[in-house]
């Protein structure tokens, strides 16, 4: 019996709660004013911010209630999520209510990512579709490339990457299995033949993964299907592709932007997607309006319309919302926030140099997504009848040992989920984010934890709710609210 497997099993498939860097509650009105606009206490160092101050504050303003309600009703209808509705109340702001009864274990919602990206470091651990975040290739390909990177990491590059990771200011990127040293290396030829498909492992035919489809421009992005490749191109990637089809000066500008993001904080890559998403939508709307000879519509109102899906989830500027890292003293908070704001403006300037017509770059707050990796495969081997298992393990054991204790490292990234982000927190939630066997892409899956009656509010926990009252409140302070859920009211010291 492997010492590693039971651990992975205990880890189950529960999704990690969103991190503190990614608050999901709507702010009180004052908070939006304080955090939005010119972004913080001191004058902005960014030319764009100064030049377009009125437009930026319009883009960042809380959408009018009626327009928000219409937006969510439309979204729920178009995605056929008829089990829920988004409600607004003056007391709690946005919330999600049940539109029908749910039994324990029922699927409430599968929320599609609006904008998201895999963490840069996680790309070493997991090869996933850049659009839907499904694992791609084959189990052999996944194991082979992870071990290959691991072997390179333990020889020379490891210190560099680790250094780069440590300077990840305000990042939510978590540690990567591949950056850990592991002396248990396998010959390079073996890894090569795993990657190319010349070597196959037993029972992997039960775990077939979609074939890799490359971007027709660059070698960076890979997809599970042509339809994901096309959707990504249409929605974001046509402005971000660093491939040969991109004009050379734009390509080098893009490369500079990507380098800066990878060296500082990979959330800028998600922000770039949010901006290209908006720009490409804007271009489409403009074409439509020109076609319909609709001269009433100003360019700015088209931009507002293009930005709408993201504006609905906007809470605060990124530099105002990042939780203060533990090693930063609270009296240094101002300079910390200024530092990361400068970083964001540098990133924006680099992006602007690359895609030019970007006129706005407000930061949305994003959740964290995680998809389990090929642990199912090793669990399957472990569950085989003894004789078959013994036979299979002769082949698989060296790979499992070489992968080390982080063999089950999931695909991790940052994403914005339009509906899940409307769900309020409770320390006694009636629902949770949970991946079932069939949930192999990056979408957020919300399952009922108990029977939920029609019209009840659906709540999830933003934190690990199995900790005492004080600890819960301290963690929730990063989200900017004091929890008044039934459990907190009961446990609150007098
Ligand atoms: Zn895909
Ligand atoms: Zn590309
Ligand atoms: Zn609570």
What does this protein look like?
It is a single chain. The strands form four sheets. A four-stranded mixed sheet has the order 1-2-12-9. Strands 3-11-10 form a three-stranded antiparallel sheet, with no helix packed on it. The model is unreliable at 1-14, 16-41, 157-181 and 358-365 (pLDDT under 50). The chain has 18 helices and twelve strands. The chain has helices at residues 5-10, 29-35, 47-51, 53-60, 65-78, 122-125, 139-166, 188-196, 226-235, 248-264, 267-291, 299-311, 318-321, 333-355, 375-383, 386-403, 469-477, 486-491, and strands spanning 84-89, 93-98, 107-111, 115-118, 213-214, 222-223, 367-371, 411-416, 424-425, 431-433, 444-448, 457-460. The protein is globular. It has two domains: 5-26 and 62-112 and 417-491, SET domain (Beta-clip-like, Beta Complex), CATH 2.170.270; 115-411, no CATH class. The chain is of the alpha+beta class. The structure holds zinc ion (3 copies). One zinc ion is lined by residues 129, 131-132, 134, 223-225, 228. This is SET domain-containing protein. InterPro entries: ATXR2-like (IPR044237), SET_dom (IPR001214), SET_dom_sf (IPR046341), Znf_MYND (IPR002893). Keywords: Metal-binding, Zinc, Zinc-finger.
